[in-house]
Write a structure and sequence with these properties.
- About 35% of the residues lie in helices and about 20% in strands.
- The protein folds into 3 domains: about 5-100 and about 115-130 and about 255-430, Rossmann fold; about 130-250, Domain 2, N(10)-formyltetrahydrofolate synthetase (2-Layer Sandwich), CATH 3.30.1510.10; about 445-530, Formyltetrahydrofolate synthetase, domain 3 (Roll).
- The mean pLDDT is about 95.
- The strands form 6 sheets. Strands 1, 2, 3, 4, 5, 6, 14, 15, 16, 17, 18 and 19 form a 12-stranded mixed beta sheet that branches. The protein has a 4-stranded mixed beta sheet with strand order 20-22-23-21. A 3-stranded antiparallel beta sheet has the order 7-12-13.
- The relative contact order is 0.16.
- It contains 20 helices and 25 strands.
- The protein is globular and about 70 Å long.
- Helix 7 (about 130-150) runs antiparallel to helix 11.
- With about 550 residues, the protein is of the alpha/beta class.
């Protein structure tokens, strides 16, 4: 059986100019990065934004995943290929860029798998068009400028112990979670504690994904909270005058990247905030561009519907040119048995009782998404070890809830592995049933927003706040920031803040440990449980399998 990277490397890849022609873009609207990828120019973005066409928006989310993930990107890509190539409807896919940290760590890349991949997969998973490097440079340049401000005169009297800005690196490096900078002589700067977050968890990543043009980018950067003064006053980037320089580093990265699937469906791959920490969706620029250039846009929300799905419905959708027309929930037999058994040892064995017990997790996810008044369909990503009895049982359980369930084999068969499913999704998107109803009102107080999400989406009984969280929320209220949306940082493995509580727990306590202002992004991050913004590497990292030969051909990425 061929690996994903072998399949991708053997695929025919068309010139990116031919892919652009499929969505009405000429070669003059592209800034090519070699033969097979390009950024879209500003004039083309502005022209598309001004047209009156808006296609249907299809959101793909999933159940709670196993540690290896359940193929959500593969389904998004295969479904897009099926709508484009089997149903012959003008389709685009809009996905996040992978972070290199997970690529060399445990989870792997984010370009799909098997016959449902975006290519060139090695480039996208590694350096691509340099967006991640630009973000890393911008993050660390900002940190250097702030430290230099402390060293030179510190006119605003910034408290070195209350700098909230983190440095960035797109690597899983646990050793950098807490560091001390400025050690040694006074010529090395002001000594203080600092820390690193992985690039995709930094506020600048969220800002890049939410900005609508360079002026908006600059405005948002200027509004980033940097630190507090010795008398507890907030200091923003605009107070220090660094917003122009940081925006200059990110101006090119703000333009969406055009690539293609193995079956030559146009795809925009742009931005990559983590869904268990940030808002977990690709850029507003890319999704809006796809909506204006195609009849059907497929986009993905990271991790399960309790994370990326909830954040998309309550936050991301409010920034887009249109709301979702349909929602796809991806499920696997394996993941549902895992929800019942709590380990991966026997997932290849038929177990109808475990499947029925684990179904409670899928039931919660699909009904959560349906509660937003957006029509839902379940796509079952079939694995070779799934039995006919298991597939039939799962379909019947879903349909008892009044929701359609279709089995797909996009990984093995490409777009032909789910033509009926593609038609069902299109019919759902065309049904005019969607009328997005958020979980909370924008004028709700911080704790009210948290409570509404905790009860509606997680099914928690109560919310408990640490003293630190109480203090931080009170400070946000004093600053007049209490009406911003909330982004809850939580484990992806459970509806609770405890990764080991699988299935569909009810009446538990959600533990809020902290609240931090992301003023440039325009939201408040609520930290629950034990969530790290700088991951570590596993005992056997994927890096041990990656190699390159003397001709530059990479192997072992998957």
């Amino acid at each position: 059986m061929k690996s994903d990277i072998q399949i991708a490397q053997e695929a025919e890849i068309l010139p990116i100019t031919e892919i652009a022609q499929k969505i009405g873009l000429s070669k003059e609207t592209l800034e090519p990065y070699g033969y097979d990828k390009a950024k879209i120019t500003w004039p083309a973005i502005k022209e598309a934004r001004n047209n009156n066409h808006l296609g249907k928006l299809i959101l793909v989310t999933s159940i709670s995943p196993t540690p290896a993930g359940e193929g959500k990107s593969t389904i998004t890509i295969g479904l897009g290929d099926a709508i484009n190539n089997q149903l012959h409807k003008k389709t685009m896919i809009a996905l996040r860029e992978p972070s290199m940290g997970p690529v060399f760590g445990l989870k792997g890349g984010a370009t799909g798998g098997g016959q449902a991949q975006i290519i060139p997969m090695e480039d996208i998973n590694l350096h691509f068009t340099g967006d991640m490097h630009a973000l890393t440079s911008a993050i660390d340049t900002l940190a250097a400028l702030v430290d230099n401000y402390l060293y030179q005169d510190n006119a605003l009297k910034i408290d070195p112990q209350r700098i909230v800005l983190k440095r960035g690196l797109d690597v899983n490096d646990r050793a950098l979670r807490k560091v001390t900078v400025g050690q040694g002589s006074k010529f090395n700067g002001v000594e203080h504690e600092s820390s690193f977050a992985i690039t995709v968890a930094n506020e600048l990543m969220a800002i890049l994904c939410l900005a609508t043009d360079i002026n908006d980018l600059k405005y948002r950067i200027g509004n980033m909270l940097v630190a507090f003064t010795e008398d507890d006053q907030p200091v923003y980037v605009k107070d220090l005058g660094f917003q122009g320089a940081i925006a200059a580093l990110l101006a090119n990265a703000l333009k969406p990247n055009l690539v293609q699937t193995i079956e030559h469906t146009p795809a925009l791959v742009h931005g990559g905030p983590f869904a268990n920490i940030a808002h977990g969706a690709n850029s507003i620029m890319a999704t809006n561009l796809a909506l204006h250039l195609s009849d059907y846009t497929l986009t993905e929300a990271g991790f399960g519907s309790d994370l990326g799905g909830q954040k998309f419905m309550d936050f991301v959708a409010t920034k887009l040119d249109k709301k979702p027309d349909a929602c796809v929930v991806v499920a696997t037999i394996r993941a549902l048995k895992y929800q019942a058994e709590g380990n991966t040892a026997r997932l290849d064995q038929e177990n109808l009782l475990a499947l029925k017990e684990g179904f409670r997790n899928l039931e919660r996810h699909m009904n959560n998404m349906r509660s937003y008044n957006v029509p839902v369909i379940v796509l079952i990503n079939k694995f070779a070890t799934d039995t006919d009895k298991e597939l039939a049982l799962l379909q019947s359980l879903v349909k008892e809830q009044g929701i359609d369930a279709q089995v797909v084999t996009y990984h093995a068969d490409g777009s032909k592995g789910g033509i009926e499913a593609a038609q069902a999704v299109v019919d759902l998107a065309d049904s005019q049933q969607a009328n997005l109803t958020p979980s909370y009102n924008k004028n709700d107080k911080i704790k009210t927003k948290i409570a509404k999400i905790a009860k509606k989406i997680y099914h928690a009984g109560q919310v408990e706040y640490s003293q630190k969280a109480e203090r931080q929320i009170a400070e946000l209220e004093r600053m007049g920031k209490d009406q911003l949306p909330v982004i809850i940082a939580k484990t992806q493995y459970s509806f609770t803040d405890d990764k080991d509580q699988l299935g569909a727990p009810v009446d538990f306590t959600l533990h809020v440990k902290g609240a931090s202002l992301k003023n440039g992004a325009g939201f408040i991050v609520i930290t629950t449980g034990h969530v790290l913004d700088m991951p570590g590497l596993p005992k056997h990292p994927a890096a041990l399998e990656i190699d390159v030969d003397n001709d530059g051909k990479i192997s072992g990425l998957f």
